[in-house]
Design brief:
about 90 residues, alpha+beta, Alpha-Beta Plaits, 3 helices
Length: about 90
């Protein structure tokens, strides 16, 4: 299972939150810093819904995290299937 997690943080806490996110482990596949409504985008992978639930709870309990939203991927189309071939 794959999910994308969007996080908004309190001002001045970005780097300490990222340090805490890194401690969550293997399920965090990628992390991006953002400009705009959200501050952090995480690509998260888990074998089960219970794994996601555990990680969402860990993220919510990090001091300085203001808001979390997430998108669970239901299906995937490969890039080569999308691109128009000439």
């Amino acid at each position: 299972m794959l999910a994308y997690v969007l996080i908004t943080v309190n001002q001045g806490s970005l780097h300490s939150i990222v340090d805490q996110i890194k401690l969550i482990g293997e399920s965090i596949r990628e992390l991006y810093y953002l400009y705009g409504q959200y501050d952090i985008l995480i690509k998260m992978k888990s074998l089960s819904e219970s794994g996601f639930d555990k990680n969402f709870k860990l993220l919510k309990n990090i001091p300085g995290v203001k808001f979390i939203d997430y998108l669970i991927v239901s299906d995937r189309t490969r890039e080569e299937d999308i691109l128009v071939k000439y």
